[in-house]
Amino acid sequence: MAIKTMQGDVYTLLPKNHIKVGDKLIFKADTTKFEDFNLTDVKKKYKVISAIPSIDTSVCMLQTREFNNKLVSKYPDVQLITISRDLPFALTRGCESFLNPNHILLSDTNYRDFGNKTNLYFDFNNLLARSVIVLNENNEIIYLQIVNPVSSEPNYQEVYTFLDKL
Q1: N or C, fewer C-beta in 10 Å, the chain?
Q2: Distance (Å, rounded) from C-alpha 147 to C-alpha 131?
Q3: What is the pLDDT of residues 74-127, one digit of tens each?
Q4: Could you give the C-alpha distances from 46 to 50, 53, 107, 153, in angstroms and in order?
Q5: pLDDT tens digits, residue range 16-64?
Q6: Active site residue 60
Q7: In sequence order, which residues have a C-beta less than 8 Å from that of residue 161 and are 6 or more positions away?
Q8: Stated pTM of the model
Q9: What is the pLDDT of residues 132-144, one digit of tens each?
């Protein structure tokens, strides 16, 4: 029996029918204080969701720091949200030294609502696929980047170029 790993083509590892541009996305997750978070409570016009497999990996930490350091300060009308299936205290431990107050960290461990609604997860290990999603004021997906291979960082410049046009 072959053991699946997160190497290779991400699209062959994802469940079929993942979200796409034009779809609406509403989900529930846990904050780092183990409180319920509902996407509908975010009032900023645009939301950037940075999905990562685990904050305990170097690439996920690089992605989280990059968006925390550059996106939050450059785009004040955009709410940055990082989500993973890490437990809330793991997210806090990993990010407490640099986290911007305008950066929301979320855990999809309890409800698994984000992963299940987007189908951007690997069912063999239940980790989220590395991806970047931009939502408009109606929570419709206007940009989607699924990082392939998952061990790579997102194309940050592509995200920033897209946000510059909003």
Answers
A1: N
A2: 6
A3: 999 999 999 999 999 999 999 888 888 899 999 999 999 999 999 999 888 889
A4: 13, 23, 20, 22
A5: 799 999 999 999 999 999 999 999 999 999 999 999 999 999 999 999 9
A6: yes
A7: none
A8: 0.93
A9: 999 999 999 999 9
For 53, the token pair is 């497999």
Q: Which two tokens stand for residue 101?
A: 């107050």
Catalytic residue among 60, 80, 133, 150: 60
For position 1, what pLDDT does the model report? Answer: 38
Q: Which one-letter amino acid corresponds to residue 81?
A: I
Q: Which of 47, 17, 74 is nearest to 143 (CA)?
A: 47
d(Cα 117, Cα 139) in Å, to the nearest integer? 13
- Token pair 């685990």 is found at 54
Cα 3 off chain centre by: 26
3-state helix, strand, coil in the chain (%, to 5): 30, 25, 45
Q: DSSP code of 70?
A: I
Q: Which two tokens stand for residue 156?
A: 């940050």
Cα atoms in the Cβ-side hemisphere of radius 13 Å centred on 57: 15
How many CA atoms lie within 13 Å of 130's alpha carbon, on the beta-carbon side?
24
Number of CB atoms found within 10 A of residue 84's CB: 29
